[in-house]
Amino acid sequence: MPRASVIIPTWDGADLLRSALLSLRRQTFRDFETVVADNGSRDGTAAMLATEFPEVKCVRFDENRGFAPAVNAGLRAASGDVLVLMNNDVEADAGWLAALVGALDGRPDVGFVASKMLSARDPTRIDSAWDAMGLAPFNVGHAETDGPRFREGRYVLSACAGAAAYRRSFFERVGFFDEDFFAWFEDVEIGVRGQLAGFRCWYEPAATVRHLGSATAARMPDRKIFLLIRNNLTLFFQTMPLRRVLMWGPVILLWPWLDPIFYGRPLRLTARGWFAFWTCVPRVLRNRRRIYSRPADVHALLAALEDPWDDIGRAWRALPRRLRALLGGTDS
């Protein structure tokens, strides 16, 4: 039985997947298996795997069921004690798996590990170091120059599931990814549940990958915006401590109507996401009761969360640029 399993969800990305798998063949840590969860690809992915990567285990769907269902299927098929998630548009440095496994071995309180994800287009810049959340989740470091801040390990809220490692015991206690999310923010949701269950998350800068980013999302831009809005509302009301919900819930409910002003997303899509959330409320409340019916380390979660006022500050700083764009100026 391998020590680790690498699970890669994919959808019509054979060329990207090939590069990801070749980077796994270069890993210095060798005690692992690879599981590809194929979301109904029609681009020859199955034939490519059979001929070029016969060692890879493949789980196939007939249609695109989303990131979370594909990852869950891969997790169920995996046999390792360390379960590693990897996007199909990621290429890993040779020491990536060794660094992830080493971080878990050296820190018994850590249940999951975030990688340093560099931009494949400009490897001097960060794509995502870890996931944080105040009122809304975000990738820490996105588009920033890689520097001292990102060269030291630290405890963080959650890991971007595009390149992350989890103990098997994490999923045994916390459960799998919430498949109702389909895609986007399901990794933060499970990270919050992990924090409440007593698992800490560690950012490991030695675990480095290069991420192309939006390789799949670019094919469904409208659906991405819809899901970002709906899932942000779901994430907040499903997982946040009650005091934060009572204090900041009205702001979160208002936000989809302000988002087009601050960030320029089309109102028709943010409104669709807002209305769709209300159909999810009964399920969100059931999930919330289930999450908080168990012993919950709320103090640890609050310590890992960002100050909600930081979200307000980021939006306020973005406003002048949006106003210039709306008035016909540059949006740079």
Word description of this protein:
With 332 residues, the chain is α/β, with parallel strands linked by helices. It has 2 domains: 4-218, Spore Coat Polysaccharide Biosynthesis Protein SpsA, Chain A (Alpha-Beta Complex), CATH 3.90.550; 221-326, no CATH class. Helix content is 46%, strand content 21%. It has helices at residues 14-25, 45-52, 67-77, 96-106, 168-174, 186-196, 221-239, 242-263, 267-292, 298-304, 308-326, and strands at 4-10, 32-39, 57-61, 82-86, 90-92, 110-119, 126-128, 130-133, 137-140, 154-156, 163-167, 200-211. Strands 1, 2, 3, 4, 5, 6, 7, 10, 11 and 12 form a 10-stranded mixed beta sheet that branches. The protein has a two-stranded antiparallel sheet with strand order 8-9.
